[in-house]
């Protein structure tokens, strides 16, 4: 495979990138980058989707200085970095785009800096829709590293003014994404509670159409509301779903930070505790949350 130097590209220039993890997010991100002309070498444990057989082969197909984006579950990020590190050299950059805890970022960056390897953390939002619509990117890292990667970020973000932020130093990207997901918990739960109330009322006889009517002209319109409408089109009573809403950890971390900084976080904390309650309940509101998680992220759900 021909390789080209990454160097310090100008904004908009085509780049070369290694992508480790080609699941729902990583695979779609790689496709979006390739469609824009970037060269992406992808590695995944599933040989059916991987371009190379190993991390060693991946790094061998990238010309130094390399940029390698990791999109793996948070629990295996450090093991992946440890496996990559001996294969990299001075000037290379590792980007962690998974849902790592922000407090893990600084120790990683410090460890890699001793080897001359850069580290950037990126909170990524966009779920299974990002390939088409673009991904919101919340980036943490040194200015020189972020600037070098801007052609990649420009391609992945949505078109227009919004959807990208250099949030601060290493750790800031994952911190911003943690807060983003905490807010997401609260928004989803508000929609879900309203949905359940209308289901149980004696006044509203067409709940799905009320949800649909809110999509234009109201102050509560949003993409999440659009996805709830989509879920109800597919399953009007959400009868195929169990009222079980998993949590990925970031809601918990947000509440922990609220306690640490004495920030009242009533809505987000209540929405997190409601997810815990969902493991013992069959509330329609929790079915709505399960449906929303499936719609925007392709997350696994339990069927009823």
Our estimate of the beta-strand percent is: 5-15%
**Residue share in helices?**
40-55%
How many beta-strand runs?
A: 7
First-residue to last-residue Cα separation = 48 Å
Rg over C-alpha atoms, rounded to the nearest angstrom: 21 Å
Overall geometric form: elongated
Remind me, CATH topology of the largest domain? Answer: Rossmann fold
CATH architect. name of the largest domain:
3-Layer(aba) Sandwich
- The CATH homologous superfamily of the largest domain is called NAD(P)-binding Rossmann-like Domain
* Order of adjacent strands in the largest pleated sheet: 2-1-3-4-5-6-7
CATH class of the largest domain: Alpha Beta
Give the count of structural domains.
2
Report on the structure:
This protein has a seven-stranded mixed β-sheet, sandwiched between helices. The radius of gyration is 21 Å and the shape is elongated. It has two domains: 16-169, Rossmann fold (3-Layer(aba) Sandwich), CATH 3.40.50.720; 177-297, N-(1-d-carboxylethyl)-l-norvaline Dehydrogenase, domain 2 (Orthogonal Bundle). It has helices spanning 24-35, 55-60, 77-84, 105-113, 130-133, 143-148, 150-156, 172-200, 207-213, 223-234, 250-260, 266-277, 284-297; strands spanning 16-20, 39-43, 67-70, 93-96, 118-125, 136-140, 164-168. 41% of the residues are buried. With 304 residues, it is of the alpha/beta class. Residues 173-300 form the 6-phosphogluconate dehydrogenase C-terminal domain. Belongs to the HIBADH-related family. Belongs to the 6-phosphogluconate dehydrogenase family. Keywords: Gluconate utilization, Oxidoreductase. Pfam families: 6PGD, NAD_binding_2. This is Decarboxylating 6-phosphogluconate dehydrogenase.
């Amino acid at each position: 495979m021909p390789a080209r130097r990454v160097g310090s590209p100008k904004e908009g220039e085509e780049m070369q990138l290694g992508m480790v993890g080609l699941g729902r997010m990583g695979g779609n991100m790689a496709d979006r980058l390739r469609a824009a002309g970037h060269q992406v070498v992808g590695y995944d444990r599933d040989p059916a989707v991987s371009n190379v057989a190993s991390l060693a082969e991946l790094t061998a197909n990238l010309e130094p200085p390399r940029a390698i984006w990791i999109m793996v579950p948070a629990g295996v990020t450090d093991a992946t970095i440890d496996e990559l590190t001996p294969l990299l050299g001075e000037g290379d950059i590792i980007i962690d785009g998974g849902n790592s805890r922000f407090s893990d970022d600084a120790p990683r960056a410090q460890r890699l800096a001793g080897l001359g390897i850069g580290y950037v953390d990126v909170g990524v939002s966009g779920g299974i829709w990002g390939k088409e619509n673009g991904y919101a990117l919340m980036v943490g890292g040194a200015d020189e590293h972020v600037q070098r990667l801007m052609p990649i970020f420009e391609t992945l973000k949505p078109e227009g003014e919004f959807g990208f932020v250099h949030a601060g130093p290493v750790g800031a990207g994952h911190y911003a994404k943690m807060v983003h997901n905490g807010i997401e918990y609260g928004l989803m739960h508000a929609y879900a509670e309203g949905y359940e109330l209308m289901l149980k009322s004696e006044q509203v006889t067409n709940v799905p159409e009320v949800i649909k009517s809110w999509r234009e002209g109201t102050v509560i319109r949003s993409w999440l509301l659009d996805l709830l409408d989509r879920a109800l089109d597919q399953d009007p009573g959400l009868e195929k779903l169990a009222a079980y809403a998993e949590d990925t950890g970031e809601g918990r971390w947000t509440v922990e930070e609220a306690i640490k900084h004495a920030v009242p976080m009533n809505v987000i904390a209540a929405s997190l505790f409601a997810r815990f309650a969902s493991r013992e309940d069959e509330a329609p509101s929790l079915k709505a949350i399960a449906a929303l998680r499936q719609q925007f992220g392709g997350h696994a759900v339990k069927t009823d």
